[in-house]
Write a structure and sequence with these properties.
This protein is mainly alpha-helical. It folds into 3 domains: 3-51, no CATH class; 66-119, Orthogonal Bundle (DNA polymerase, domain 1); 126-179, DNA polymerase, domain 1, CATH 1.10.150. 41% of the residues lie in helices and 4% in strands.
Amino acid sequence: MSKTQLKALLAVATLLLVSHGVNAADPLHPATSAAGPTTGQIGEALKVPGGNVPKKAKPKPVANPIDINNASAAQLKKLPMVGDADVAKIIAGRPYFSKAGIAQVLGDGPYSAMKREIIAGPPPKVDVNVADAATLQRLPFITEALAAKIIAGRPYARKDGIAPIVGDRVFSAIKNFVVAGSGTAKR
């Protein structure tokens, strides 16, 4: 057994003794604390400088995250666990209002693998006067029924014209993602 392995084994044994209320320096006399070891005692047993248990290191942020709303197919394919079929699903699912939206398209496993490498940049705004029902339903909280009501109420002079249709709470959630353009309104 190497010297390093022996030190590690001794630290673990000491930690076990301390965690069971045994004074590691004098195993015949119990430790004074009946509540169990303190963080400092555990750190001391592990010979950690400062007597503290080391904290788990936070992962470093990625220097150039990929914007899932604007990335090309080639850029998306560079993400972990993403193949050609996944790229098509990601592009078809746009716009994403948060990066967690990828989990709904690809599942939790791929999302967990790529979440540090992606961002959801601002999606293109949806024009409530020209968007079709499918596009409107990509907005948060807009159901098929609400999309139909929005389309039936066209044209809108301002984006807040849809507030009476969708309600104040829903409008608050989507107001930054919609516009009321002057394009030809479709019913």
